[in-house]
Design goal:
The complex is a heterodimer of chains A (162) and B (389). Chain A is α/β, with parallel strands linked by helices. Chain A is built from three helices and seven strands, in the order αββαββββαβ. Chain A has a single domain, classed as NADH:ubiquinone oxidoreductase Nqo5 subunit (Beta Polymerase, domain 2, 2-Layer Sandwich). In chain B, strands 1-2-3 form a three-stranded antiparallel sheet. Chain B has a three-stranded antiparallel sheet with strand order 6-7-8. Classes of the chains: A alpha/beta (162), B alpha+beta (389).
Chain lengths: 162, 389
């Protein structure tokens, strides 16, 4: 099903070397690409295939499950075609950076700041990459899997003692 | 005379910031030069918490995102988990979900019109709109036991069937609300002060609105004809007829008109869904996921064990990832859930409409007077519980 998708066919034609994987699960098409090509591919999806709305930018931490550890997820929607596609780009822990798509969509200004704040992925060329939900002097990135749920300097919750 | 920039702090306790939004505004006289939003005062880490709770335990957290529209949040979450599981929800449950989601839209828009009008100086509307909102709140309390944190939907259907007399209460709302909307329109639509405060305020073109990722009524106010309920229907929305209003002038006044038409359309959807409501089960036939009926729990050991297993261990969800979005009152509310096959979400990302819409505030208010900023915050219809999560 994913192979017949309009966008997937076009992407395979143009960016064969950069595409790592194509998946479809319950109607959601996901294309995994190399992070070096993310801006180029998003540019093509926006101008060539009318994916004009950047709905969401987020990231998943696969600590101990996958290498590279992080995956940045871009959620694109095409208002003219009522079509959605997820673009994923693996990001390694050693080089925890990816190019910003703020040049293509202004919505990435806020969304990428949140990913930086909570997941610690740096976005190159982002004009204003500051923390957004946590305070400026916060240490660590709360959504990482090795960040403790109860916070950095508290004992883990052990359940009710009574 | 040399230009002098003055920095003014607005919020987080300012009454027009709808919660705990803080804006640092740089002013040249009264003209806005730059706005820096500071958010996160209400950050509770819902996404992090959900990674440590079972799917059923995560549901109450979603009530507390957009606390003016709890059932819309619940709906997006349960739809996402159902999509992961691949289970079908009975028709009656779907119809009740549509009724409640549309009543939630009314409830949320009533708070919007009340606070928006109050911010700009029309107090009467505030009192009237809260009177009507109370009707929806009472219905919420009767159906779920809570006025705000409803937690009524379940993965697979509803927590319980509707109470006796539900149809009558909903019908009363459907019959009376359009008249109340006429009252609001009578107070505002041709009110000179209202027109002066809203026409030409917070203009954002369709291209810019899409560029900033604005969704929902704020996008339709800029003339983009897009509504998830119609274009990517969920929960049986394809069965109902409704029009999607769009604006032309891209200003606060057009967004006001779009939301008012949306409220009238919501009433029409509720009426159609109510006519469509047929008896039947309200929970899917999926014993590994859904709680057993209460009489089984109290009367048989198998039922008790079943209940205990689901309450304590939850249920496993197949490995995979889905994105499911709904047209919440504020815009596109999406849930991106990654499952590793366990009983807890491996990662749950909430795509909050208010957060993304707030990103456009500088674009909309730059060059305007500081008093107009209050109107822009009102017209964006933000809720900080959802922005900060």
């Amino acid at each position: 099903m994913a192979e017949n998708n309009r966008a997937v066919v076009k992407l395979r034609e143009r960016f064969a070397a950069s595409i790592l994987d194509v998946k479809a699960f319950r109607g959601t098409v996901t294309v995994t690409v190399k992070k070096e090509a993310i801006v180029e591919i998003c540019q093509y999806l926006k101008t060539g295939l009318a994916f004009n709305l950047l709905t969401d930018v987020t990231a998943v931490d696969y600590l101990g499950k996958q290498d590279p550890r992080f995956v940045a997820v871009y959620n694109l929607y095409s208002i003219p075609n009522k079509d959605r596609i997820l673009i994923k780009a693996p990001v390694s822990e050693a080089d925890c950076t990816i190019d910003s798509v703020t040049g293509l969509w202004s919505s990435a200004l806020f969304l990428e700041r949140e990913v930086y704040d909570l997941m610690g992925i740096k976005f190159n060329h982002h004009p204003d990459l500051r923390r957004i939900l946590m305070t400026d002097d916060w240490v660590g990135h709360p959504l990482r899997k090795d960040y403790p749920l109860q916070g950095p300097d508290r004992e883990p919750y052990k359940g009710r003692l009574s | 005379m040399a230009k002098e920039i003055m920095t003014v702090n607005m919020g987080p306790q300012h009454p027009s910031t709808h919660g705990v939004l803080r804006l640092v505004v740089e002013l040249d006289g009264e003209i806005i030069e730059k706005i820096t939003p500071h958010i996160g005062y209400l950050h509770r880490g819902v996404e992090k918490l959900s990674e440590h709770r079972t799917y059923h335990q995560t549901l109450p957290l979603t009530d507390r995102l957009d606390y003016l529209a709890p059932m819309s949040n619940n709906l997006g979450y349960v739809l996402a988990v159902e999509k992961l599981l691949g289970i079908e929800v009975p028709e009656r449950a779907q119809t009740v979900r549509v009724i409640m989601a549309e009543l939630t839209r009314l409830k949320s828009h009533l708070v919007w019109i009340a606070c928006h009008a109050l911010d700009i100086g029309a107090m009467t509307v505030f009192i009237y709109a809260f009177r009507e909102r109370e009707k929806v709140m009472q219905l919420y309390e009767k159906i779920s036991g809570a006025r705000m944190t409803s937690n009524y939907f379940r993965v697979g259907g509803l927590s319980a069937d509707v109470y006796d007399g539900f149809e009558k209460d909903v019908q009363e709302i459907v019959d009376t609300f359009p008249g109340h909307f006429d009252t609001y329109e009578g107070l505002l639509t041709k009110n000179t002060i209202w027109l002066q405060r809203t026409i030409g305020n917070g203009v954002i073109s369709a291209e810019d609105a899409i560029d900033f990722g604005i969704t929902g009524p704020a996008l339709r106010g800029s003339g983009v004809d897009w509504d998830l309920r119609r274009d990517n229907p969920y929960s049986g929305y394809e069965k109902y007829k409704f029009t999607v209003p769009v604006g032309e002038k891209c200003d606060t006044y057009d967004r006001y008109k779009v939301r008012l038409v949306e409220m009238r359309e919501a009433v029409k959807i509720v009426q159609q869904a109510l006519n469509d409501l047929k008896p039947g089960p309200v929970l899917a036939d999926a014993p590994q996921v859904c709680y057993p009926p209460k009489e089984n729990v109290y009367n048989s050991i198998e039922g008790l064990i079943h209940h205990f297993k689901i309450a304590s261990e939850g249920f496993p969800v197949p490995e995979g990832e889905v994105y499911q979005s709904v047209e919440a009152p504020k815009g596109e509310l999406g849930y991106y859930i990654v499952s590793d096959g366990g009983n807890k979400p491996y990662r749950m990302r909430i795509r909050p409409p208010s957060f993304v819409n707030l990103g456009a505030i500088e674009k909309m208010a730059k060059g305007a007077m500081i008093a107009d900023l209050v109107a822009v915050i009102g017209t964006l219809d933000i809720v900080l519980g959802e922005i900060d999560r």
